[in-house]
Amino acid sequence: MSILRPFKANDLFRFNNINLDVWTETYGITFYLTYLQRWSDLCFTQESPGGRLQGYILGKAEGAQAEWHGHITAISVAPEYRRLSLARNMCQRLEFASDEIYKGYFVDLYVRCNNALAIKMYEGMGYSVYRRVREYYGNLGVGKGGRDEEDAFDMRKPLSRDGAQRSIRPNGRDMIVSAHDVS
Predict the structure, then answer these.
(1) 65 phi and psi, to 5 degrees?
(2) Alpha-carbon gap, residue 60 to 107, rounded angstroms
(3) Are residues 122 and 109 in contact, defined by beta-carbon separation less than 8 angstroms?
(4) Other residues' Cβ atoms within 10 Å of the Cβ of residue 47
(5) Distance between CA 141 and CA 155 in Å, rounded?
(6) pTM, to two decimals
(7) Per residue of the chain (183 residues), what is the pLDDT tens digit?
(8) Is the CB of residue 45 less than 8 Å from the CB of residue 35?
């Protein structure tokens, strides 16, 4: 049985098996260290009994007033460990900390619009599309239906503080904004 534990700086030297994946965004070492320093309670890794890293999640708290929320910046599970609910467990831990420690209204994340498996997984965990962000991942050309395949869905899941559920909307896929309109 694997363990979910806080992400540590030395894990950066052990997570290539996770980051070498077409869907995983990778960043410079300073980026990871900033997250570990500022939001260590929102950064976790899943480790196998043998010590191999299976996945990780990096999060932060951001926004103001009713937009104060937890944000999943990166989540990835190594291909050989997928479909074991590791991503679900890591998201639940981040959601709990965002709710109980940071008192956020919701948790959000961005996912490529063409990553159907991830979208289905997030919807199964209670996330819904709040809006579509044009060219969030850069403009690499026009995809199916005239839409850039590198658009992102801003998906959100309300937390206990959002009793009115203002962080979700039924027509989120139709709400299109520019990447310049999001922070």
Answers:
(1) 50, -125
(2) 10
(3) yes
(4) 18
(5) 23
(6) 0.89
(7) 899 999 999 999 998 888 887 777 788 899 999 999 999 999 999 999 999 999 999 999 999 999 999 999 999 999 999 999 999 999 999 999 999 999 999 999 999 998 999 999 999 999 999 999 998 886 555 555 655 458 999 999 999 999 999 999 999 999 999 988 886
(8) no
